[in-house]
TrEMBL record:
<dbReference type="GO" id="GO:0015891">
    <property type="term" value="P:siderophore transport"/>
</dbReference>
<dbReference type="Pfam" id="PF00593">
    <property type="entry name" value="TonB_dep_Rec_b-barrel"/>
</dbReference>
<keyword id="KW-0472">Membrane</keyword>
<keyword id="KW-0732">Signal</keyword>
<dbReference type="GO" id="GO:0015344">
    <property type="term" value="F:siderophore uptake transmembrane transporter activity"/>
</dbReference>
<dbReference type="Pfam" id="PF07660">
    <property type="entry name" value="STN"/>
</dbReference>
<comment type="similarity">
    <text>Belongs to the TonB-dependent receptor family.</text>
</comment>
<protein>
    <submittedName>
        <fullName>TonB-dependent receptor protein</fullName>
    </submittedName>
</protein>
<dbReference type="InterPro" id="IPR010105">
    <property type="entry name" value="TonB_sidphr_rcpt"/>
</dbReference>
<dbReference type="Pfam" id="PF07715">
    <property type="entry name" value="Plug"/>
</dbReference>
<dbReference type="InterPro" id="IPR039426">
    <property type="entry name" value="TonB-dep_rcpt-like"/>
</dbReference>
<dbReference type="GO" id="GO:0009279">
    <property type="term" value="C:cell outer membrane"/>
</dbReference>
<keyword id="KW-0675">Receptor</keyword>
<keyword id="KW-1134">Transmembrane beta strand</keyword>
<keyword id="KW-0812">Transmembrane</keyword>
<keyword id="KW-0798">TonB box</keyword>
<feature type="domain" description="Secretin/TonB short N-terminal">
    <location>
        <begin position="79"/>
        <end position="130"/>
    </location>
</feature>
Amino acid sequence: MPMRNTNLPANPCVTGTCRSQALLRQIMLLACLSMAAAFVPVRAQSTTAPVQPQASLRYDIPAGTLDQVLNHFAADAGITLSIDGALTAGKHSSGLSGSYSVPDGLKALLAGTGLEAVATPGSGYVIRRATAATITTSGTVLPTVTVAGHRAAIDEAPPLYKGGQVGSGARMGVLGNTAVMDTPFSVTSYSAQVIENNQARSVADIAAMDPSVRMSSARSNINEDLTMRGFSVSSADFALNGLFGLTPYWRAPLESIERVEVIKGPSAALFGMAPGSSVGGVVNLVPKRAGDTPLMRITTGITSNSLFGGHADIGGRFGPDNVFGARLNVMHRGGNTTIDGQSTYQSLGSLGLDFRQRSLRASLDLLWQQERINNVVRQFQLSPGLTAVPRVPDNTTAYPGYGWTDGRNISWLFKAEYDISQAVTAYASYGMRKLNWGAIAANPILLNTAGDYSYAGGWQRMPTRTQSLEAGMRGVFATGPVSHSTALGFTWLDQSQELGFYTGLPPGISNLYTGQLFSTPSIEGINNLARPYLDTQLTSVVLADTMSFWDDRLLASLGLRYQKVEGQSYNFATGMASGPRYDKSAITPVVGIVFKLRPSLSLYASYIEGLSKGDTAPISAAITNPGEIMSPYKSKQKEIGVKFDQGNFMTTLSLFELTRPSAGISGTTFGVFGEQRNRGVEATIAGEVVRGVRVLGGASYIDAVLSKSVSAMLKGNKAIGVPEWQANLGAEWDVGFLPGLTLTGRMVYTAKTFVDATNTLKIPDWVRFDAGVRYAARIVSRPVMFRLNVENLLDKDYFGAATAGYLFIGTPRTINFSASIDL
């Protein structure tokens, strides 16, 4: 298939397009105003209110220990459940799938266990041994309710935790779906509900919710990258349903996403090596799936300054026993942003199909995304002679004041799994992605404290094709008193990138405080052919086993992954190979232990390694080993922590040390002589602390230093772009005197940050406040949700920093209003 031409005009409107976009904006605005004027308040039930005992709810609770499954059921049903651990010890449950009242759901879960649930005053239940009246002469509890429905898929999103903001578990690569309390790592799974309520447009908005995650590029830059625990995580390294290389390359929209799973620290042993060598953590995007209840949700909205948008989310199941499901999401937004002279146009289309039977489950995800930003902003580089960072300019400043970026992504992913027996499941998945991207942009360089900067522009094109595959088998068995959950897996990723780079655009000088805009240089008549740039092949084999001791009180996970890394770089000006082919391999382990002092309290410890592609020694007469290829760099993380699940809210406290080596020149030899060591403590909280009040966030402290360096002067210095303190705390309050009304707020704090290796340049600390309100109502018996969110409420001007030393300006005050109706 021929690649589409990225030589696009600066004005994206073509004949009839602008008129249709203007008409679409007017229709959306009228829809918002009409719904706001016509809403009829109703007595809306809080999502965290206790469920009436006879009301039926849909449950999709995966198999696990009886304690885990009962706790999940209680959280979903909004009931208090008293459990004596001695009664449930050693007992397992196949989970629950289907619609049940609370009493019937408890009966189904306890069938065959010799236990029963007895109601207590209020909305509580207590688990006790079954009475004689419910036991037959053989001593077995009568199965009054039979659990029917499909078996949960290995990578199906676990149930929501109390409050609906996060999931009760996450996909942990080769370890499969794992409950948070059973995971020897720090992990948070952000839900579609929290994405919708915060009107999150991309993964960048999730960074405002996590204390160990920060943006490392501007919101309207070409790319949206993150730092996690002080190390960079590229947007190109996000995973889609557990596979790398398939998400939109520069920016990942969230309208089609059910969960955003954030796993902290290097995870090569769990997921395999990321194609861009990120080691700070893994961001896994879980696509939406159709539920048993049909859904047709239409959302219209406006973002300041005049960015209008619409989103349709349609899903349902059909066929015998609802074995087939389809979920369609379509989104478009366009208009002017809060940045001077900037406009953007974004479109998304996704279709998620799935098939589920007792022994066979399969899914197909199709994703198309397009984004255009006119007057794209870039990050600032720092001039070597700079003595101090200039004061931050107005946050609406456009820099360097011209250019555009235009990208189109097409991805698809097929997954299937088959139960060979009750104990053994085989699985396989395969996906592809095509990116066609181009941009005219310039990298500004700060020259002095007066805010002067120089820039040199270029026209860049980068077509990219990726294939990703995973296959394996999982099994459960026992060796005496020890239960095993074992997985053998294989992954393969092939990615080819081409590059066309024209650097002849005229340079210039501007100033941060003038806010000057320029005309985008013309590229008419310029031949910018894309030629081979980089080919990467990643192949791995992994074997992992989670062992359960003492009635699941002790869980021990062990795993080894053999990773082979191959690649070839090219001179994009000629398309000829540049240097020798990279061909190295490494083995990365994972060790994790979880000890449950009681079902609600877990202690954990883990050791895991990550991989980055090694560098190649430069070709130079001054280097004694020119062209030598370094083996893959191993990043290592040690972590210990405690997790507490109160039933209504969940907290994690962790201590970690993460090291990553780096290469450089010592004397005349190129080698791995440097190392960055990040030691820290992290605390997170999620859930409903008191009835009607939900919190989400936490705080982290990181001591990031250059523990090894070629230069003795740099050893012991603070690492670039890693603040010591970070804190994010969001809260929601369901206003009791006006049912349906919820007030929200968030505080985001980042401490001062060094932005050069000598620690002579730093940016000051900053704090940002966000606020919002939402209201649940009905229009003609249809549920409607109005949402108003304000990011950067006080319009704070601040600098952000990347670990490479780049600076960018924080997002201006941005107002988002939307109205959603379920038809």
